[in-house]
Amino acid sequence: MGLAPESEAFSGNLSHLSVGEDEAANTRQRPDDPHSAGNGNSFATDRARIMQSRAFRRLIHKTHMYLAEDLDDHIPTRLGHTLDVVRIAREIARRVSANEDLVEAIALGHDLGHPPFGHWGELRLHYHASQNQQCGYMPDPSIEPAGGFKHNQQSVYTVDCIESDSPSACGLNLTLWTREGMLKHSSINYGVGASVAILPETVQKELRCDRPYSVSLEGQIVAAADEITEATHAIQDFVQAGAVDYEDVLDTVKGFGAEHRDPGRLLLPHTRAALLARDLESTLMTLCTAHALKEAAGARRVPDGTGVKCLQQEVFPRDLSVCSSMFGKLKEYVAEMMAHCPTLARMDARGAHIIHELFTSYYRNPLLLPDNVWRGYCLMLSPNWYQWPRSAQRPEFLSRLGLQATTPSPDVAAIIRGELRKARRQLEKCQGKCADREGAGPSRDIQAQLWYDPLFVRAIIDHIACMTDVFALREYRKVFAQHGFLRE
Length: 488
Fold this sequence. Notes:
Layout: H1 6-10, H2 42-51, H3 54-58, H4 78-96, H5 100-109, H6 118-129, H7 151-162, H8 176-183, H9 201-206, H10 217-240, H11 246-255, H12 269-295, E1 301-303, E2 309-311, H13 325-339, H14 342-364, H15 371-381, H16 394-400, H17 410-416, H18 420-434, H19 442-451, H20 454-465, H21 469-481
Antiparallel strand pairs: 1-2
Helix pairs in contact: 2-5, 4-5, 4-10, 4-12, 5-8, 5-10, 6-14, 6-20, 7-8, 8-10, 10-12, 10-13, 14-20, 14-21, 15-20, 17-18, 18-19
């Protein structure tokens, strides 16, 4: 399959479906503080806030596919993947005259919620934060469900609650369009019958969670760019890691109909793999753009009940196999390589084990948690947690989980007031009594308020999700070294 003609690849104006700068007005969660307001347009401001956040800077030490610590310095991390998505998304946006600033902001923030150790780390956190009692990884079957875990939901939660650029409020205060595109770059649900549990219902309505696709052209472009990056650069990563032979990869990909002029053995295999990935992504971008130009013929943006203009259909498909059968075959090939790669399986198991042990240790011994986690738990317990204009309060979160808000016990009330030293002393006194989940007085108060509070579980989940691979490994070694043993 050769490249499409240049006129088809690079012509096409979908600016009438693009989000304009004027549409960003009044879509932030609150009025900007004077000292944090940007000097550029709204989407350039979003981009700057994301790039200056701590969550973005941590991406350089988070796994994309392989644990870089175990291989070499050339294995791409989550940050490298993010920059590849930005590059491909901007190229597609340029071809169809979409809003490049918005595309870049969405692409830069789309993976901020990824935990350490890649998608297996995400799966393990979901086990601990959901009602799945059959998975075999829950430390105690009485743990309350805490909303599940999915990295795109966590990305929005991160920029809304965990990060902050204002002394008076939580969150980066991004525009609706950036947050909605970040959420919709991947499936928003966990599976059949699941929901977007960690986001309040008002936020779900704001982000149009009733529609599985992004309601902006730019959000759909980023979702397509993420798919292209995942499929094409996985091949390069496998060759770089020595998991597959380049010649076998080349023969297989050419069998799918891809056109590639291999430079021969004059170059090293990983360099040849990079050139192959570049040709594949160029071909897929062209096919994807051509498909979108055809689909856009009858597409239009219609204002909803709040006056926000929403794209009424998928122009850029989330499943790129509808553009080309080659993409479907490529995804199947990558999935097969991942399933049969012993190095990857070993790393996945190691990462899953570390996350499981960290969660169990924090849950059974809250004294191991640092003060910033307790402060985050304080915010969750306050009546205005996750509250902005148009947002919800803590009782709504609990009610959707089938639970009721309770009055904090005196010992936990000390945590809420910020008296962390007093709370830690009380925890130390009752730690022995709590070990067997029995006792009286303060120990039972803390048992009821912490062990059976889904927001305490959520605080631990958020703490682990913010870790880098490097920090998680260091924390794991520190926790188990102090007990006189280390399991890796």
